[in-house]
Amino acid sequence: MLVRSAIWHPEVVDPDALPPRPQVPAADQTLRILRHLARRPAPVAASALARDLGIPRSTVYHLLATLADHGFVTHLPDERRWGLGSSAFELSGGYSRQEPLARLGRPLIAALADRVGESAHLAILTGRDVLYIVEERAPRRPALVSDVGVRLPAHLTATGRAMLAAMPAAQVRALYPDASAFTDRTGSGPRRPAELRDLLREIRRTGIAAEHGEVTGGLRSVAVAVRDHTGWPVAAVATTWPDELERAVDGTVEDVAEVAAELERRLRR
């Protein structure tokens, strides 16, 4: 069956064999500061950054000074606040121009939607969320919550589950250390680390990552992870259809798996 070979790339048989990515505290704190500033509607005081992010105030000041030297943040002395600088906008523009995953994936996702006659999408993992970067709605199908730029809890989505199942167990534990990490949308889906472990174990066993009404009632999805040359899950391809339609899940997963495998091939060129 094509599904298993496409989900489990021969270069990486066991996801637990992948070493956890090393933690670099300064880099982590710097990126958290930039992300926090990007999400705020106005510049922020350094003391507020320290409080909201749980980073020592002295560390925040040192990191902000370095970021300012490189143009990623700017200081507004009259307001005693910090905002994003020109380098951050240049970086954003560069991503918009390149967006390699979206650029390579868009025609494949469109072809998948045409082939199966259902809506299809491409998502990446960011923290405990999935971020949708390509969405292709099939004709006469309802709009989905998974529009481009939307974030949803990874543990509830088929795309998120496909990527989590392909990650080392230690990395999943770091993302979901306790019950407080689990967001609920429809009253179903894993709510504790043990439940998520059981779900991911079943995905690895069957080769099928799916969700049924856990994001939006009346809809179900299947997904397959896309891996980079190291075997790390960099994205996931999925298709979604209404409950009332009788579809062969295995056949649909095969279609999704073919697209995921082709995207992997194009990423590795």
TrEMBL record:
Question: What residues does the IclR-ED domain cover?
Answer: 87-269
Q: Taxonomically, which superkingdom?
A: Bacteria
Query: Which GO molecular-function terms appear in the entry?
Result: DNA binding; DNA-binding transcription factor activity
Keywords linked to the UniProt accession: DNA-binding, Transcription, Transcription regulation
Where in this chain does the record put each HTH iclR-type domain?
24-86
Report any Pfam family annotated for this entry.
HTH_IclR
Protein name (record): DNA-binding IclR family transcriptional regulator
